[in-house]
Amino acid sequence: MPSPNPHHSKPPESSSHVHDYDSDQDTDPDSGLELVELARDVLSPEQDYAAAASNPTEQQRPPQKKVWGVRMGGRRGNKRHVYGELGRGQGGGSGQHDDDGYHGRYSEGSAQEDDNAPLLDRPRRSREQPQRHQPKDAGSWLRQRLPSFGGSNGGGAMANQGNNNNEEDEQDEDDPSSSRQVAVGSSQSIRYPPNLISNAKYTAWSFLPITLYNEFSFFFNMYFLLVALSQAIPALRIGYLTTYIAPLAFVLMITLGKEAYDDIERRRRDNEANAEEYTVLQFEDPNKSYSTGRSSKKLKSARSRKGSKRFVSERDRLSDIQEEEEQMEANGAGQPSSYVSEISKKSRDLKVGDVLKLTKGNRVPADVVILKCLSLDAPAQQESEAHPDANLLGDLVEDESSSQNAADSGAADQGGSQGETFIRTDQLDGETDWKLRLASPLSQNLPTEEFVRLQVTAGKPDRKVNDFVGSIELSPLGPGEVDGQPKAAPLSIDNTAWANTVIASHAITLAIIVYTGPQTRSALSTSPSRSKTGLLEYEINSLTKILCFLTLAISIILVALEGFSNTQGNVWYVKIMRFLVLFSTIVPISLRVNLDLGKSVYSWFIQRDPGMPGAVVRTSTIPEDLGRIEYLLSDKTGTLTQNEMEMKKIHVGTVSYANDAMDEVSAYVKQGFHITDNSSNPALVTPSSTYASSGNVGATRTRREIGTRVRDVVLALALCHNVTPTSEEENGQTIRSYQASSPDEIAIVKWTESVGLRLAQRDRKGMTLESPETGRVLVKVRITDIFPFTSEGKRMGIIVQFYDKLHPTSGEGEIWFYQKGADTVMSSIVVANDWLDEETANMAREGLRTLVVGRKRLSPKEYQEFSTKYQEASLVMSGREAGMQAVVSQYLERDLELIGVTGVEDKLQRDVKPSLELLRNAGIKIWMLTGDKVETARCVAVSSKLVARGQYIHTIAKLRRKDVAQENLDLLRSKTDSCLLIDGESLSLFLTHFRREFISVAVLLPTVVACRCSPTQKAEVATLIKEYTKKRVCCIGDGGNDVSMIQAADVGVGIVGKEGRQASLAADFSIEQFHHLTKLLVWHGRNSYKRSAKLAQFVIHRGLIIAVCQTMYSIALDFQPEGLYKDWLLVGYATVYTAAPVLSLVLDKDVDEDLANLYPELYKELTSGKSLSYRTFFVWVFVSIYQGCLIQGLSQVLTEVDGPRMVAVSYTVLVLNELLMVAIEITTWHWVMVVSIVGTFLMYVGSVPFLGGYFDLKFLMSLGFLWRVAAIGAISLIPTYAGKVIRRTMKPPSYRKVQGI
Q: How far is residue 266's CA from residue 1065's CA, in Å, rounded to a whole number?
């Protein structure tokens, strides 16, 4: 939190924050003999180069009159204070230096080094230098000149040196519930979390426990685990042990392998983001950096004695002193607090306290506080060229010619660069408007080398992306500055850039990291990844419980029919257990294998679909849920829209222009801004200039009036904005672009350029407009006041003074107030008219974002009176905003001349309108959740046809009272056909106090639009719909602010778009366009669900029929628990002989894609779950019992009760029955189906000779075997097929109906 008195706040008492002063003072007036070498070594590179540049010859220097003792005395005690550990241990000592040590570090050997040697990593200077006279107190003076590294408030630097050397090992753990103090450019005393992005679900330690728990939480997996474990008991063992263990192990391997692969892919994608390179400023001890051999300008005495080891005369020494003093004085400053270099770090290696160097297009890797913004304008570049070595950061442009005392002074608040940069926050809050961010004045004009004197205090990690409270402190240079107290300044949200925002300005931004990794705003707003399980899995789990109960019932009944008698070695409960094992095929473990393989096939289809290029399946366990969606929650920005604004329409009162008519606007502008003055100081256009109609001499009066109106509105639009033009060099060409906090304004300024009036230059003081064709300046204004847009005011205004000449000679000129805003507020500000309401309503129906433009001319007296009152209101401490607005309303916002209305379109994504209509017809209710403004959300909802033409839109905004909230709920209950438009503040009130009442009403509405939603609110809405309705919810988005919503949904879909890949990486399915969603749901989702439903029922039928045969066999054997098909026959039936045909059902389809899109109602019927319901399940159970009883019963009747002949007939009919049942169930044949059925049959025939241990092979070659198989198979299949044909004829399914149309 900021200090109550920022200019007199004491620094925190921490070993990382150093404020001690050496008690030793230099009292020897003659101690300057050797100090010249000392001062020479601590000069910064900037000072050194500047000295060389400004003093090319000694003759050019003015003679020095000052006394050395006086000059140096002014520097004594001017000790710098540095936060952190930079150069720890360098400044401490007893106040005296050993002569050898001192001479070795600061000998004149540096003068003999190569001037082109690198700045860093040099070998230490040789100690083999001639011994010279060493003043005893020079070390004391050195400590006063350099920072006291490693000291504390309580004592000297030496006292804590040993402790601080091991600071990394002794770092305290971070307490996330407390605020933090961050030393700039230094390691911190507290250990903060690493800066890692992680969307992974598992770690190396948690993978097995979590996945196994998830698997065995399903009943049938636990059932098979118990069956497999039972085979370890000899009394319960039936056949091979592997018969029961191998299938379970195979299922687990498939599932775990798929989960591992999905998670490894997530980690790989995370690693790509974590390995992104960033430039970090490294602050080093200047004493260490320079003393180890910095290239420098040689002193005269050094040059004269190069290569000589003789003693230097006192005269040479004094010459050196004079020369060095002149260099120091020319530079105007002493030694900097640090030496700055640039290093490259990966995102994962960034730490709290690191200072980042960010440029345009860089993603901000962590939450940062902006310290400095450096523009790349032409004057700065010229200055940089004049001093190419004046900045160690290379391309940073800054003015560091002023002294550090001046940089530290409070005057920084009043003048100098304000440090502006723009960021894009669409990854965080969904808004495409560029946000203006500012560096604190305290750090903006501070030289980069002095950043180590800064400390940032920030609050605890928080998920509020629009709120931040902090402060920044600057430690003093010495005790004489502001009583030795550090200066402080407050920090707010305007001084920050959160993780995953993007630098949008063509400038360099220096920022310090304050929150990393899981403590960033975006991470705290993101829900943790969770394992998603499809609804089909839960439904099959329920059916499995029924099958298990059926198994237990049959086992008990068979034992009961025997009378619970005990035979030798078999007691009745052991018989029940053996029957349970025998009937375990009723609960088919192969069901999981087939379903998982089916999911892989569906995923392959989705990713290979040519109609969905770039589609990626990241969670392959839930493709069937794509066919069960009933609620779609969509982001707006970048999902429904393209983030591109375009001026579509303009109305000037009597005529409207759009599309091709814009050419006529260009003609009017060309005439209206025509300048014939070719003098050196030509006249410029002002609003009162006469409209030039020379291009059309015969123009009528009406045409001239229209031309004047068009000129006025174009001029107003070209001036009333906050847009700044920029230019960049790309491939040798200059590309012009615009920066602004609103894309609407950029669209309007681009439109004015297209019709003939271009914004050429803009700064805080003025604007220049020119012709795009000739480049000639047409309009030049001075900006006097700007009234920025606010969500409350819904308008922005500007006061400008026009210049009548290109080079004005006087300060006089027309003063005009321009304003544009929403029609709801501007209608009461402009003069009465009869067309505004009608025209804005027409544009709104077209889905255009309307802006009403007005103007008012001010006399110098009126403006002076307004300015005085406005200044007075701005100084009031209480009610300042209201007072300032009252002055504006009184003097400016009254009887404005209405000059036009504009209509701007937020371009929709391709095919959004038909896609939304198709999804609605498919029975999906669509909600739009966005972080954007209410007006914007309303316009997009209308333009995208999310809201039907004429549909009532009930708007709830700024709701704070519970009674009003209840009234709104009552009104919505009576209008369930309306659309609800609600903002985040009101939504929060409903979710807090009327949670259940609100959702019960909202789910009845066809459309809900929620704007100004935070990421957590989006996720909360998705969770609430799931919990209340028990329906499947799909969420789709493209930004980082959508990740929580996507992960909270049953099915999360991410769009790879302009907002980056974060949503795509966290989603279950990734697509590139919104209209691909219709194909993903209506085609792939429907097919996946119907295929899996049919596959699951067929696998259950396959297991149930063999269990019925086993039951019939046990009854024939007097209820003995003996196996009918053992070992290979049991394993082969579920794998080799039936697996491929059954699995080929995943290729089946009832309608083609065109019919599915033409009749989306086919999708709607899936939501009821009729494809796999208790009704269809029991139909298949009845079919299985019928076929199983006939096959086994007739086999025993026609052959023998027990023996290889019966087994041969029964097993063969069983296999053929399954193959033919697959053929009967197929709707649309695929060549793979034919191959699998025919191939499996041939495989079975080919394997018969190897089944002599189970079959009577001689009997198989006889005619008796063939007619028995044919007869039993016909009796089993013909009634089943006949029943299916009759049912389809009497009550045809929907797909049969549309196929017949």
A: 7
DSSP states along 780-794? EEEEEEEE---TTT-
Which residues, 6 or more positions from 704, have their beta carbon under 8 angstroms from its beta carbon?
691, 693
The single-letter DSSP state of residue 234 is G
> 853 forms bridges with which residues in the sheet?
820, 900
* Rounded Cα gap, residues 755 and 736, in angstroms: 16
Residue 505 CB contacts under 8 Å (≥ 6 apart), including other chains: 360, 373, 420, 421, 422, 423, 726, 739
Angstrom distance (rounded) from CA 590 to CA 247: 7
**Angle made by CA atoms 826, 828, 831, in degrees to the nearest 5:** 95
pTM (global) more than 0.90: no
Backbone angles phi, psi at 554, to 5 degrees: -65, -40
Q: Write a three-state SS string for 804-852.
A: CECCCCCCCCCEEEEEEECHHHHCCCECCCCCHHHHHHHHHHCCCEEEE
- For 625-645, b/e burial (b = at least 16 CB within 10 A) is bbbbbbbbbbbbbbbbbbbeb
Q: Among candidates 313, 316, 325, which has minimal Cα distance to 67?
A: 325
> Which of 26, 320, 367, 635 is labelled catalytic?
635
For residue 311, give the amino acid letter. F
Q: Are strands 1051-1055 and 1032-1037 parallel, antiparallel or unpaired?
A: parallel
Whole-angstrom Cα distance, residue 38 to residue 106? 6
Q: Is 1282 exposed, middle or buried (0-12, 13-18, 19+ CB in 10 A)?
A: exposed
C-alpha 364: how far from its chain's center?
10
Q: Residue 635 catalytic?
A: yes
pLDDT at 1300: 62
Low-confidence residues in the chain, pLDDT < 70: 1-177, 238-243, 288-334, 376-418, 429-433, 478-486, 527-531, 565-570, 677-678, 691-700, 791, 1057-1061, 1300-1301
Please answer whether residues 885 and 780 qualify as being in contact, where contact means their C-beta atoms are separated by less than 8 angstroms: no
Phi-psi region of 395 (alpha: psi -120 to 50; beta: other; left: phi over 0): alpha
Considering only the C-alpha atoms of the chain, give the largest distance between any 2 of them, rounded to a whole number of Å: 132
Strand intervals (E) in 87-231: 172-173, 180-183, 190-191
Instruction: State the residue for tokens 């039972």.
Output: 230
Q: What is the pLDDT of residue 370?
A: 93
Residues 925 and 447: their CA atoms lie apart, in Å, by: 57
Write the CB contacts of 52 (distance below 8 Å, at least 6 apart in sequence): 297
Within 8 A by CB and 6+ apart from 1165, the residues are 1294
Residue pair 102/138 in contact (Cβ under 8 Å)? The answer is yes
What is the rounded CA–CA span in Å between residue 416 and residue 436?
A: 18
Q: Which pLDDT belongs to residue 128?
A: 38
Distance CA 599, CA 624 (A): 8
Q: What is the pLDDT of residues 990-1034, one digit of tens each?
A: 988 888 999 999 999 989 999 888 888 899 999 999 999 989 999
Q: What angle do CA 733, 735, 738 make, to 5 degrees?
A: 170
Length of the chain: 1301
β-strand pairing of 507-515 with 355-358? antiparallel
Q: Spell out the SS3 assignment of 1208-1269.
A: HHHHHHHHHHHHHHHHHHCCCCCHHHHHHHHHHHHHHHHHHHHCCCCCCHHHHCCHHHHHHH
Q: pLDDT, tens digit, for every residue of 1051-1071?
A: 999 988 655 567 887 889 999
Nearest to 21 by CA among 442, 483, 416: 483
Place of tokens 């592997």: 242
Query: Could you give the count of Cα atoms lying within 13 Å of 963 in the half-sphere of its Cβ?
Result: 0
List phi, psi (to 5°) of 190: -120, 140
State the residue for tokens 């426990």.
Answer: 209
Strands (E), 446-506: 454-458, 470-474, 487-491, 496-497, 502-503
Six-digit token pair at 248?
């379970």
